[in-house]
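Hi there,

I know you've been waiting on this one. I reran it after we fixed the sequence typo, so this is the corrected version. Both the input and the resulting structure follow.
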Amino acid sequence: MPNPKAAARHLFEAHRRHERFAPLPADLAPSTVEQAYAIQDRFVALRAEELGAIAGYKIALSSQEMQRFVGVTEPQAGVMLQSTLHRTPARVRAADYVHLIVEFEIAVRMAADLPAADAPFSRSRIAESVGAVMPAIEIADDRNADYSQLARHPLELIADNGWNEGAVLGVPLEDWRALDLAAARGVATINGRKVGEGVGAAALGHPLDAVAWIANHLAAHGRGLVFRDVVITGSIITTKTVQPGDLVRFEVERLGAVELRVD
């Protein structure tokens, strides 16, 4: 069994040195999902010393297509830290990352705690506890990963916190309950050019089902979503690479738009 603390330190130092994404050394690599999340917990704790407390969660590989591509059969969870969450319009520097990528998502903000003791959680139970909904652009760094090799090391994505580097959040819409989030259509542009579109159902069938998955995942580890946590529910458009000078915009009908400028 690998030492999760040593594996997390290895990851942390690799990020600090802006090294290319690579599998962990054999003696540190996780062989089970639980080992991978144990490493993630310690990696996040190291990053939290600089980036602030846990402020929310992400869901990765929310489509069956992406799961097949990486060689897994379920989504993966990641953590977002306080200082990495930005309000639109936001700016980041490409030089702060190895290889900056973005995803386009529907985000929710929790209005109540969902303690582990109340699990399992359904879509309707989640809906009762969501205070606001908004469009979001996830900020991530794949560190020039060789995507053709991911299926050989799918647990490394969990350990590396799903490559998350935060998100840009749109204006929270509190009066959202009349909206059909599964049918909500989003359009992404970069420098005014359309690069993709999708609907909320692309994220596990419904954005609130994605939140339920996160809540149940946390409950299985003795934790829960808490008041004001933000959950980004999975990309409804394929991942895009961005570079200095780009203006990224994501607009979701009846939810508004979110913008990210890359310097």
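Quick highlight: The mean pLDDT is 95.

Best,
R. S.
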